[in-house]
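User: As part of a screening pipeline, I want to sanity-check one entry by hand. Below is the sequence and the SMILES for zinc ion. Please return the complex as structure tokens so I can compare it with the automated output.
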Amino acid sequence: MSSAATTFANELVSALRLTAPIDPVDVARQLGLEVEYCQSSGFEGALVCSKEKRVGTILVKNSIREDGRRRFTIAHEIAHYVLPHHGTTGSICRPKDVENWDRSLPDQESEANIFAGELLIPCVLVEAVVSRNRPTFHLIRDLSNTFDTSLTASAYRTMGLTSFRAAIVWSTAGVIRWFKASEEFGEFVAVKDSVSEGTYAYDCFQGLAVPDDLRTVKSNLWLAASRRGLPDFLQEHSIWLPSYGSVLTLLYIEESAHALVDQDEEALEELQPEDFTINRRKWPR
Ligand SMILES: [Zn+2]
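Assistant: Here is the complex for your manual check:
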């Protein structure tokens, strides 16, 4: 499902020679779409097209406060316009359809969100930086600033590109709604479970101040039991997002020294210790 969205977004980035920050209004215009802002109590964004999509208009709710969210909504509607099998006359998208990676979303909404993330933070422009550096909210905030995207969209893209063992988790009203892990993460977060007491995310929901960096917590507070056994600890950094009543959490698993493979000393000096792992499928370039 997601590969078509990724391919179409990458093709568009390449064909239009887009550079950071990507302007989705300009992309829409180049595709022959107008963008209009209007009052709406129901939809976040909508696409209205003539039959067979010869001409069209993207409607965006004018009360969206965050620029990153507005830009993501436009990119989401572009997805419905360019992706095959997304209808011939348009779409109407609810707030919960946009910039959300909950697996219970209809396939076309998930696909539009994957496309929007790829279009706004193109792999070709960020892969080198993201895959090489340890994922932190510092790195993710840099991406948000460079690409003018929300923290959540930037964090989601980071997990798709990093070569480290990391995941982000979205919780609302004390319940885990979705998570996105890197290929190397190798563990599962129990979606639909309540956020465990003892985590910093739990403290956020209690209205408590939490540290603005990674801190060590017991891994069984976050990870579903595994036959292989869990690492004892992982690193957590949770951020309270008041406009959404939600918490965005970054989880990071430090890789142990026994995962080091034999290398000559010169090669070891050139690379960071965490660059070595028997689990890694993608290697920093
Ligand atoms: Zn949609």
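Points to compare against the pipeline: DSSP finds nine helices and nine strands in the chain. The CA atoms of residues 15 and 94 lie 30 Å apart.
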